[in-house]
Amino acid sequence: MDTSKAIGIIVNNPEFADVRSLEGVAPTKQHAVFTIAVPTTAGTAAEVTINYVITDVEKKRKFVCVDVNDIPEVAVVDPEMMYSMPKPLTAATGMDALTHAIEGYITKGHCTISDMFHLEAIHLIAKNLRAAVENDKAGREGMALGQYIAGMGFSNVGLGIVHSMAHGLSALYDTPHGVACAILLPLGLEYNMPVAGERYRAIGRAMEVPYIDSMNDEDAAKATIAAVKKLGHDVGIPADLKEIVKDEDVQFLSESAFADACCPGNPRDTSVEEIAALYRSLM
Ligand SMILES: NC(=O)c1ccc[n+]([C@@H]2O[C@H](COP(=O)([O-])OP(=O)(O)OC[C@H]3O[C@@H](n4cnc5c(N)ncnc54)[C@H](O)[C@@H]3O)[C@@H](O)[C@H]2O)c1
Ligand SMILES: [Fe+2]
Q: How far apart (Å, rounded) are the C-alpha atoms in residues 75 and 78?
């Protein structure tokens, strides 16, 4: 879907023939060619977002393009298209959707309307991802809806450091996008706790964490992070980056993450050095 979006934009805006010129918010003038988007995974929500992500294989980096002209005219979100996904793909893409909903909920630009989408998406994903991994019909339906609703939210407000840091892992090591997001999500929540922690209780409530409303703020935030970790663990996501990241790449990865279009949306202002320390904490 992302490739189609880029092609659709370039066909109608040939002055951007080099896709690299579209990074960030691109000043295209024409809407992309008429596009019908049919997701076959329950994750990216690219069928409804204003984003597409491209891998620059020469520079070994992924970059995000943000352009209202790329939204497909029609989205066909049919859970039957997702039945054939193997378990690891279902898990990874589902955790990508959870990351969209959670990062979108705590991002700097969040607002009442995006909060509504994100909390409902978190609820649907937490409730249905385990069943979807087992190819349960209701689970697949809940995930198709949950990922889509998350897209309705984050496309309007942005994401954060988890996506910034995840992009480099896919560009350098071919780590599936959802796996990279899922490994980094609990770490991102811990890092953002000093500035966004008071919003974690609502995330935990949406995930149906027991007794969340009788906890103090700190315990509620920690219980929420634990629930996110447990969901990732239950669907088979690795707990750390030990098998993925090489020490000599940390500086390049951190610089790429800091320059990533998702980084400014992170609730806590960050730096290349702090991002490097975050990568290293999981190695
Ligand atoms: N546009 C956005 O807003 C947005 C948001 C998040 C991520 N992304 C990007 O989306 C990309 C990841 O997309 P994805 O997670 O959907 O995976 P994908 O499209 O890369 O597919 C992963 C693999 O799964 C296979 N596959 C897809 N559907 C299948 C099915 N139903 N049954 C069996 N196999 C199937 C594909 O052929 C492919 O080999 C990344 O590049 C990521 O950066 C975009
Ligand atoms: Fe994503």
A: 9
